[in-house]
Structures are given as C-alpha cells and as structure tokens.
C-alpha cells in the first residue's frame, strides 16, 4: 500500500540482461558457446538474420563431422575436394550477401537522389514563381504608365481638337468667371502660379481682434447683460395645498430622501 519515488527514470536504471558465470565440462562443446559473440543490442534479441546464421553454423558443424580422416592418400584427396566444394559454396553465399548489401545501398542512394531531386524541383519552382511575380509586378507598373501616358495624350488631343484651325480667340471673361474650374479660380502651377505663395494675404486682419485698444472698444460696445451675469434665486416649491394638506409629491420626496440617507 506504499509507493516510492526515485530521482532516476526507468530508462536510466535499465541495464543489459544478466549473464551468469558458467563452467564447461571437459570433453564437451556446448552449442550455446558458439553464440557468445552475440550480445544485447548486437544480435540479441535474435532476428531472421541471426537464425539463418545459426542454421548455417549447424550445417557446417554437421559437414565437418562427415569429413574423412587423413589416414591415407585417397581420404586426403576426398577431404580436399569436399573442402574446395564447401569453400566455393561459402564464396557464393558471400557474393549473394554482398549483392544484397549493394542492393540495399542502391535503394538508399536512389531515395537520397530522389529526395534531392524533389528538393531541387521545389527550389526551382519557388525561384520560377518569384521570377514570375517580379515580371508580373513590372508588367503591371508598365501597363499603369502606358495608361497614364495614354490619358495624358488624349487630354492633349482633346485640347488641340477644340481649335483645329488654330484661330485666335478673344478672352471670354464672363465664361471664365462663371466656370469655377477655369484659370481664374484654379490656376495651374505649370503656367507660373503657385497658390501657396503669399498665403498670409488671405488671413483675416481685424482691428478689434488683433489690438488691445480694439478689444477694449469692442468690450465697451457690448451691453451689460453680456459681461455681467444676473442670477435669480429659484422660488421654493409649494408643498401644501390650499386646504393645508401635504401634497403626494412632497411626501414621496421625503421618503426618497430617507431611503437615500
């Protein structure tokens, strides 16, 4: 019913599986000792590759038990032939393993090349998109400039079309003053007129507002009701009726005052 809390994680406390000490009887070669090279994380727990390796080791031990003794020349030749055959099989098996490793490496290389090609394609597509966007912006700006120039030229042509024959026209003062968009009311700066120049002449200059003497004269001309405020005290409200009773509104005001207090 009690719990404990440690300062270490379970992963930090894990160790390799325990391998107890062993004693090998004389004259015996346990098969388990042939797997002493396999350790935890390197072959253990055993997979398909380790099982195939164990099976090949068993087949080789069974083959070694079938080798003839080296007591005469015929047995030696037979033993040599069997060893050469086994050596060819081992080389063939080693070649197959090398081919498998090469195939695996080739697949990995293909995936890396494919990934690099995809990244390069994405980068090229992004560059093309940016290049296209820049061209679109330049195109839009050029179109705007062309439209602006076209409108400007059209206005010039319309102005020239009004006087095709180039005849001299007298100034129509009445038409200029009736048209509020004419040069009289809205002169253009390109003909040498700048409306911001000498703007102080439009400021209102008044003797009564800009000088102290004018302010005193203006104040003296005003009536007394403007400078001297006449406050009249309000009349008290009548809270009783003609017959001497207190009005309902007065009673409500008294009650409200009590509630407020």
Entry keywords:
single chain; 261 residues; mainly alpha; two-stranded parallel sheet
Strand content: under 5%
Instruction: Tell me the series of helices and strands, N- to C-terminal.
Output: HEEHHHHHHH
What's the count of strands? 2
> Helix fraction?
55-70%
Q: How large is the count of helical segments?
A: 8
Task: State the end-to-end distance.
Answer: 66 Å
- What is the rounded Rg? 57 Å
List the strand order in the largest sheet: 1-2
Low-confidence stretches are none
Mean pLDDT comes to 85
Helix vs. strand class: mainly alpha
Strand count, sense and barrel status of the largest sheet are: 2 strands, parallel
Shape: elongated
Summarize the structure.
With 261 residues, the chain is an all-alpha fold. The protein has eight helices and two strands. The chain has a two-stranded parallel sheet.
